[in-house]
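Could you help me review a protein record that somebody else here produced? This is what I was given.
***
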Amino acid sequence: MTMHKIPKVISIIGGQGKLGSLFASKFKENGFEVLITSKDKSNNQEIAKKGDVVIVTVPIRKTEYVIQEIAPFVSEDSLLTDFTSVKEKPVKIMSELFSGEVIGGHPLFGPIDSLQGNKFILCPVRNGAYFSWYKSFLQSLGLHVYEMTPDNHDRMMSIVQCLTHISNVCFINSLQHLQQNFALDLSLFKHLSTPSYQARIQAASTMLQDAGLYADIQKENKYSQIVAETYNASVQQLLQTIKGKDFESIEIMFKQIQQFIKEGGNDS
Protein backbone atom coordinates (compact mmCIF):
# COMPACT_ATOMS: atom_id res chain seq x y z
CA MET A 1 0.00 0.00 0.00
CA THR A 2 1.42 3.39 -1.05
CA MET A 3 1.94 5.86 1.77
CA HIS A 4 0.63 9.35 1.05
CA LYS A 5 3.06 12.16 1.86
CA ILE A 6 3.16 15.94 1.74
CA PRO A 7 6.47 17.38 0.51
CA LYS A 8 8.48 19.97 2.37
CA VAL A 9 10.74 21.19 -0.44
CA ILE A 10 9.72 21.85 -4.06
CA SER A 11 12.64 22.18 -6.49
CA ILE A 12 11.85 23.89 -9.79
CA ILE A 13 14.43 23.48 -12.52
CA GLY A 14 13.75 26.54 -14.66
CA GLY A 15 11.89 28.30 -11.90
CA GLN A 16 12.81 31.76 -13.17
CA GLY A 17 10.83 31.29 -16.37
CA LYS A 18 7.30 32.64 -16.67
CA LEU A 19 5.51 29.37 -15.93
CA GLY A 20 8.04 28.20 -13.37
CA SER A 21 7.86 31.46 -11.44
CA LEU A 22 4.06 31.36 -11.52
CA PHE A 23 3.96 27.96 -9.83
CA ALA A 24 6.83 28.87 -7.52
CA SER A 25 4.70 31.70 -6.14
CA LYS A 26 1.72 29.37 -5.68
CA PHE A 27 3.79 26.83 -3.76
CA LYS A 28 5.27 29.57 -1.57
CA GLU A 29 1.83 31.04 -0.86
CA ASN A 30 0.82 27.62 0.49
CA GLY A 31 3.76 27.35 2.86
CA PHE A 32 6.19 25.15 0.92
CA GLU A 33 9.90 25.80 0.72
CA VAL A 34 10.67 26.45 -2.95
CA LEU A 35 14.11 26.20 -4.52
CA ILE A 36 14.71 27.48 -8.04
CA THR A 37 17.75 27.27 -10.27
CA SER A 38 19.98 30.22 -11.05
CA LYS A 39 19.72 32.09 -14.32
CA ASP A 40 22.70 30.23 -15.77
CA LYS A 41 21.31 26.87 -14.49
CA SER A 42 24.71 26.08 -12.98
CA ASN A 43 23.09 24.72 -9.81
CA ASN A 44 20.55 22.38 -11.44
CA GLN A 45 21.99 19.26 -9.82
CA GLU A 46 22.30 20.89 -6.39
CA ILE A 47 18.67 22.05 -6.47
CA ALA A 48 17.48 18.65 -7.75
CA LYS A 49 19.17 16.88 -4.80
CA LYS A 50 17.18 18.85 -2.24
CA GLY A 51 13.66 18.52 -3.61
CA ASP A 52 10.95 16.16 -2.39
CA VAL A 53 9.20 17.16 -5.62
CA VAL A 54 11.38 18.11 -8.59
CA ILE A 55 9.73 19.92 -11.50
CA VAL A 56 11.48 20.43 -14.85
CA THR A 57 10.11 23.47 -16.68
CA VAL A 58 12.53 24.48 -19.41
CA PRO A 59 12.11 24.95 -23.19
CA ILE A 60 11.14 21.70 -24.94
CA ARG A 61 14.42 21.55 -26.86
CA LYS A 62 16.35 21.57 -23.56
CA THR A 63 14.11 19.20 -21.60
CA GLU A 64 15.86 15.95 -22.53
CA TYR A 65 19.29 17.36 -21.69
CA VAL A 66 18.13 18.76 -18.33
CA ILE A 67 16.46 15.48 -17.32
CA GLN A 68 19.64 13.60 -18.16
CA GLU A 69 21.60 16.14 -16.15
CA ILE A 70 19.57 15.99 -12.95
CA ALA A 71 17.99 12.50 -12.83
CA PRO A 72 20.99 10.81 -11.15
CA PHE A 73 20.86 13.40 -8.36
CA VAL A 74 17.14 13.19 -7.50
CA SER A 75 16.38 11.16 -4.36
CA GLU A 76 14.62 7.84 -5.01
CA ASP A 77 11.97 8.93 -2.49
CA SER A 78 11.12 12.05 -4.51
CA LEU A 79 8.68 12.81 -7.31
CA LEU A 80 10.16 13.81 -10.67
CA THR A 81 7.77 15.63 -13.00
CA ASP A 82 7.73 18.24 -15.76
CA PHE A 83 5.69 20.98 -17.45
CA THR A 84 6.40 19.99 -21.08
CA SER A 85 3.87 20.33 -23.93
CA VAL A 86 4.69 16.85 -25.25
CA LYS A 87 4.70 13.85 -22.98
CA GLU A 88 5.92 10.59 -24.50
CA LYS A 89 9.59 11.49 -24.86
CA PRO A 90 10.12 13.34 -21.55
CA VAL A 91 8.27 10.68 -19.56
CA LYS A 92 10.25 7.90 -21.24
CA ILE A 93 13.55 9.58 -20.40
CA MET A 94 12.51 10.28 -16.79
CA SER A 95 11.40 6.66 -16.33
CA GLU A 96 14.61 5.26 -17.77
CA LEU A 97 16.99 7.46 -15.80
CA PHE A 98 15.12 7.72 -12.49
CA SER A 99 13.78 4.82 -10.42
CA GLY A 100 11.42 6.82 -8.19
CA GLU A 101 7.99 8.36 -8.75
CA VAL A 102 7.48 9.77 -12.26
CA ILE A 103 4.47 11.80 -13.40
CA GLY A 104 4.32 13.72 -16.66
CA GLY A 105 2.65 17.12 -16.39
CA HIS A 106 1.30 19.67 -18.86
CA PRO A 107 -0.36 22.97 -17.89
CA LEU A 108 -2.73 23.87 -20.74
CA PHE A 109 -2.05 27.59 -20.38
CA GLY A 110 0.76 30.11 -20.34
CA PRO A 111 1.52 32.82 -17.78
CA ILE A 112 -1.85 34.08 -16.53
CA ASP A 113 -3.23 36.10 -13.63
CA SER A 114 -5.55 33.39 -12.29
CA LEU A 115 -5.36 29.60 -12.53
CA GLN A 116 -9.05 29.26 -11.69
CA GLY A 117 -10.89 27.15 -14.25
CA ASN A 118 -7.83 26.32 -16.35
CA LYS A 119 -6.71 22.79 -17.22
CA PHE A 120 -3.77 20.65 -16.22
CA ILE A 121 -2.93 17.18 -17.54
CA LEU A 122 -1.15 14.54 -15.47
CA CYS A 123 0.35 11.40 -16.98
CA PRO A 124 1.12 9.07 -14.05
CA VAL A 125 3.75 6.56 -15.11
CA ARG A 126 5.15 5.38 -11.79
CA ASN A 127 2.99 6.47 -8.88
CA GLY A 128 4.38 6.93 -5.41
CA ALA A 129 3.81 8.75 -2.17
CA TYR A 130 3.29 12.23 -3.61
CA PHE A 131 0.76 11.67 -6.41
CA SER A 132 -2.33 12.10 -4.24
CA TRP A 133 -0.97 15.32 -2.73
CA TYR A 134 0.13 16.71 -6.11
CA LYS A 135 -3.20 16.17 -7.80
CA SER A 136 -5.10 17.59 -4.83
CA PHE A 137 -2.82 20.62 -4.66
CA LEU A 138 -3.36 21.44 -8.33
CA GLN A 139 -7.10 21.14 -7.82
CA SER A 140 -6.91 23.42 -4.78
CA LEU A 141 -5.55 26.13 -7.13
CA GLY A 142 -8.79 25.95 -9.10
CA LEU A 143 -7.35 23.82 -11.89
CA HIS A 144 -9.29 21.07 -13.65
CA VAL A 145 -6.95 18.07 -13.57
CA TYR A 146 -7.18 15.30 -16.16
CA GLU A 147 -5.28 12.00 -16.10
CA MET A 148 -4.24 10.19 -19.28
CA THR A 149 -1.44 8.15 -20.80
CA PRO A 150 1.48 9.96 -22.46
CA ASP A 151 0.49 8.53 -25.87
CA ASN A 152 -3.12 9.65 -25.54
CA HIS A 153 -1.91 13.08 -24.42
CA ASP A 154 0.25 13.51 -27.51
CA ARG A 155 -2.55 12.33 -29.80
CA MET A 156 -4.93 14.85 -28.26
CA MET A 157 -2.38 17.68 -28.32
CA SER A 158 -1.57 16.98 -31.97
CA ILE A 159 -5.09 18.27 -32.61
CA VAL A 160 -5.50 20.84 -29.85
CA GLN A 161 -2.06 22.35 -30.43
CA CYS A 162 -0.46 21.14 -33.68
CA LEU A 163 -3.56 21.47 -35.87
CA THR A 164 -4.32 24.92 -34.46
CA HIS A 165 -0.75 26.07 -35.00
CA ILE A 166 -0.61 24.70 -38.55
CA SER A 167 -3.88 26.43 -39.39
CA ASN A 168 -2.71 29.76 -37.94
CA VAL A 169 0.68 29.65 -39.67
CA CYS A 170 -0.90 28.80 -43.03
CA PHE A 171 -3.50 31.52 -42.55
CA ILE A 172 -0.92 34.25 -41.89
CA ASN A 173 1.43 32.92 -44.58
CA SER A 174 -1.42 32.99 -47.12
CA LEU A 175 -2.36 36.50 -46.02
CA GLN A 176 1.23 37.63 -46.55
CA HIS A 177 1.34 36.25 -50.09
CA LEU A 178 -2.11 37.57 -50.99
CA GLN A 179 -1.21 41.04 -49.74
CA GLN A 180 1.77 41.01 -52.09
CA ASN A 181 -0.13 39.51 -55.05
CA PHE A 182 -3.12 41.84 -54.72
CA ALA A 183 -1.07 44.88 -53.63
CA LEU A 184 -3.43 45.38 -50.70
CA ASP A 185 -3.13 48.01 -48.02
CA LEU A 186 -3.42 45.95 -44.84
CA SER A 187 -4.19 49.06 -42.78
CA LEU A 188 -7.63 49.12 -44.43
CA PHE A 189 -8.47 45.78 -42.87
CA LYS A 190 -8.89 47.49 -39.50
CA HIS A 191 -11.91 49.30 -40.95
CA LEU A 192 -13.24 46.72 -43.40
CA SER A 193 -12.70 43.36 -41.69
CA THR A 194 -15.32 41.33 -39.85
CA PRO A 195 -15.21 40.44 -36.13
CA SER A 196 -14.37 36.82 -37.01
CA TYR A 197 -11.41 37.96 -39.12
CA GLN A 198 -10.11 40.17 -36.32
CA ALA A 199 -10.50 37.29 -33.85
CA ARG A 200 -8.50 35.02 -36.15
CA ILE A 201 -5.74 37.59 -36.56
CA GLN A 202 -5.56 38.06 -32.79
CA ALA A 203 -5.36 34.30 -32.15
CA ALA A 204 -2.63 33.83 -34.76
CA SER A 205 -0.68 36.86 -33.51
CA THR A 206 -0.77 35.58 -29.92
CA MET A 207 0.53 32.19 -30.97
CA LEU A 208 3.34 33.58 -33.10
CA GLN A 209 4.78 35.54 -30.17
CA ASP A 210 6.63 32.38 -29.12
CA ALA A 211 7.70 30.87 -32.42
CA GLY A 212 10.35 28.68 -30.80
CA LEU A 213 7.86 26.96 -28.49
CA TYR A 214 5.40 26.16 -31.25
CA ALA A 215 8.12 24.99 -33.61
CA ASP A 216 9.32 22.63 -30.87
CA ILE A 217 5.80 21.26 -30.35
CA GLN A 218 5.55 20.44 -34.07
CA LYS A 219 9.01 18.85 -34.01
CA GLU A 220 8.58 16.76 -30.87
CA ASN A 221 4.98 15.56 -31.25
CA LYS A 222 5.27 12.45 -33.42
CA TYR A 223 1.69 12.87 -34.65
CA SER A 224 2.19 16.36 -36.09
CA GLN A 225 3.02 15.06 -39.58
CA ILE A 226 -0.23 13.08 -39.76
CA VAL A 227 -2.12 16.18 -38.68
CA ALA A 228 -0.38 18.35 -41.29
CA GLU A 229 -1.09 15.80 -44.03
CA THR A 230 -4.75 15.64 -43.02
CA TYR A 231 -5.00 19.43 -43.03
CA ASN A 232 -3.40 19.56 -46.48
CA ALA A 233 -5.83 16.92 -47.76
CA SER A 234 -8.77 19.01 -46.56
CA VAL A 235 -7.41 22.10 -48.34
CA GLN A 236 -6.88 20.10 -51.52
CA GLN A 237 -10.41 18.71 -51.35
CA LEU A 238 -11.86 22.21 -51.05
CA LEU A 239 -9.56 23.50 -53.78
CA GLN A 240 -10.77 20.86 -56.23
CA THR A 241 -14.41 21.72 -55.61
CA ILE A 242 -13.67 25.42 -56.20
CA LYS A 243 -11.71 24.70 -59.38
CA GLY A 244 -14.54 22.53 -60.67
CA LYS A 245 -17.15 25.08 -59.60
CA ASP A 246 -18.79 22.22 -57.73
CA PHE A 247 -20.66 24.47 -55.35
CA GLU A 248 -23.06 21.72 -54.37
CA SER A 249 -20.13 19.73 -52.94
CA ILE A 250 -18.92 22.80 -51.07
CA GLU A 251 -22.35 23.20 -49.51
CA ILE A 252 -22.42 19.52 -48.59
CA MET A 253 -18.96 19.84 -46.99
CA PHE A 254 -20.09 22.85 -44.95
CA LYS A 255 -23.23 21.02 -43.80
CA GLN A 256 -21.16 18.00 -42.74
CA ILE A 257 -18.91 20.31 -40.74
CA GLN A 258 -21.92 21.96 -39.12
CA GLN A 259 -23.26 18.54 -38.16
CA PHE A 260 -19.90 17.52 -36.71
CA ILE A 261 -19.81 20.66 -34.57
CA LYS A 262 -23.44 20.17 -33.53
CA GLU A 263 -22.65 16.64 -32.35
CA GLY A 264 -19.87 17.90 -30.11
CA GLY A 265 -16.82 17.91 -32.36
CA ASN A 266 -15.69 21.25 -30.91
CA ASP A 267 -16.51 20.56 -27.24
CA SER A 268 -13.86 22.00 -24.95
Q: What stands out?
A: The first helix runs from residue 18 to 29.
